[in-house]
């Protein structure tokens, strides 16, 4: 929700009167909510609260944003795949093919090796989903689904499953978990290695989750904080400067959106590669 | 007492964010310097070096961001 900040921040300042609560405004933008504000109209769409067996499973802003991201992806990639039979790609297809080939060749095949093609589908799905969510967060009125820790935790759980499925498919359940300890280590080292490897099994997806969440959240916090400066200092001449800086960070965020999608996919591919070839 | 706690929380958040940035900056700086060295010596290995550098940078950045999130939570919850 970056483009609409000045306006929303202005609303917040009006509501609270003289004192402007920058922290509250930033949290309001970052946290998940059960309502969606449509920018420039003041219309607030309230989403229903759904509780199943005591668990809060309501549709929130992040969920709606993920749906929108999925719809955009299905539409764009469907449009690109429509001309898949043609020999020479053109238009949208050739644009998307650059990204797809990059994920397949540079990320998948380089990290996993010859058996990469089985998981390339997963890698492409993750890459495009994260990219779409990240970029959607930069559109005014939208929010970043990947800036929500539950979303990134879900992605990390899927990555965890894929890493171990890759290993199990290659060596069987027993063989895969025996690979946790490298072959040929002294016997007294085995318990320590086992402990370290079990820990790293959990830490890998946890780090994936935190990295994506924190990156996406941090950019938005910086932009919002820069815009808040105008309302905190209450000097008109701060505005051009802070808007300029916010624009700069906003452009940087476009780069970060691509880099984070790449990093998430790349690291997952590396971990799958490590599970498939446990040589070291 | 309440006010002191609040002040200490903000203090900790600020100092912590600074320390985390120092660590992360030093780490990524060293990494980038070495990568540039490597690329300057062997330009044909630039692609491989870049990939390895990005992965390592992402790992460093991950923990730095974890620390920053903790600081952020301290500053917001205080």
Main sheet makeup of chain A? 2 strands, antiparallel
Q: How helical, in percent, are the residues of chain B?
A: over 70%
Which overall shape of chain A is indicated by the principal axes computed on the Cα atoms? globular
Pair of chains with the largest interface and how many residues each contributes: A-B, 20 and 15 residues
Give the name of the CATH superfamily of chain B: F1F0 ATP synthase subunit C
Poorly predicted parts of chain A: 1-10, 12-17
Summing up helix and strand content along with how strands pair, one would put the structural category of chain B as mainly alpha
Reported by name, the CATH topology of chain B is: F1FO ATP Synthase
**Domain module count of chain B:** 1
Q: Please count the beta strands of chain B (DSSP E, at least 2 residues each).
A: 0
Can you describe what's shown?
The complex is a heterodimer of chains A (280) and B (78). By secondary structure, chain A is mainly alpha-helical. Chain A has one domain. Helix content of chain A is 69%, strand content 4%. Chain A is built from eight helices and four strands, in the order H-H-E-E-E-E-H-H-H-H-H-H. Chain A has helices at 5-16, 22-30, 61-81, 92-112, 120-136, 149-178, 190-233, 238-276; strands at residues 35-38, 43-46, 51-52, 55-56. Chain A has a two-stranded antiparallel sheet with strand order 1-2. A two-stranded antiparallel ribbon of chain A has the order 3-4. In chain A, a hairpin with a 2-residue loop joins strand 3 (51-52) and strand 4 (55-56). In chain A, helix 1 packs across helix 7 (190-233), helix 5 runs antiparallel to helix 8 (238-276) and helix 7 runs antiparallel to helix 8 (238-276). The two termini of chain B are 13 Å apart. Chain B has 78 residues and is mostly helical. The longest helix of chain B has 40 residues, at 2-41. Helix content of chain B is 92%, strand content 0%. The interface between A and B is medium-sized, with 20 and 15 residues.
């Amino acid at each position: 929700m970056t483009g609409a900040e000045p306006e929303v921040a202005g609303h917040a300042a009006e509501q609270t009167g003289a004192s402007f609560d920058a922290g509250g405004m930033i949290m309001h933008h970052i946290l998940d909510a059960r309502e969606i504000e449509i920018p420039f109209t003041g219309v607030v769409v309230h989403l229903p609260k759904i509780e199943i067996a005591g668990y809060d499973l309501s549709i929130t802003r992040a969920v709606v944003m993920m749906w929108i991201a999925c719809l955009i992806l299905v539409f764009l990639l469907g449009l690109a795949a429509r001309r898949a039979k043609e020999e020479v790609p053109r238009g949208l297809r050739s644009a998307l093919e650059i990204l797809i080939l990059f994920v397949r060749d540079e990320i998948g095949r380089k990290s996993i090796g010859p058996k990469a093609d089985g998981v390339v589908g997963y890698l492409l799905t993750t890459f495009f989903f994260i990219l779409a969510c990240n970029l959607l967060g930069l559109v005014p009125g939208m929010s970043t689904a990947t800036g929500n820790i539950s979303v990134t935790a879900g992605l990390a759980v899927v990555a965890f499953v894929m890493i171990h499925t890759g290993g199990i498919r290659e060596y069987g359940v027993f063989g895969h978990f025996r690979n946790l300890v490298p072959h040929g280590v002294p016997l007294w080292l085995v318990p320590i290695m086992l402990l370290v490897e079990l820990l790293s099994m959990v830490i890998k997806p946890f780090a994936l989750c935190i990295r994506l969440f924190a990156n996406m959240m941090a950019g938005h916090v910086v932009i919002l904080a820069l815009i808040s400066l105008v309302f905190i200092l209450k000097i008109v001449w701060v505005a051009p400067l802070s808007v300029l800086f916010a624009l700069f960070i906003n452009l940087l965020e476009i780069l970060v959106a691509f880099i984070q999608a790449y990093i998430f996919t790349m690291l997952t591919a590396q971990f799958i590669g490590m599970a498939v070839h446990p040589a070291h | 007492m309440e006010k002191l706690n609040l002040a200490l929380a903000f203090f900790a958040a600020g100092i912590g964010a600074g320390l985390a940035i120092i660590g992360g900056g030093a780490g990524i700086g060293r990494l980038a310097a070495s990568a540039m060295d490597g690329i300057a010596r062997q330009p044909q290995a630039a692609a491989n070096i870049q990939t390895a550098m990005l992965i390592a940078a992402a790992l460093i950045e991950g923990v730095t961001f974890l620390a920053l999130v903790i600081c952020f939570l301290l500053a917001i919850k205080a």
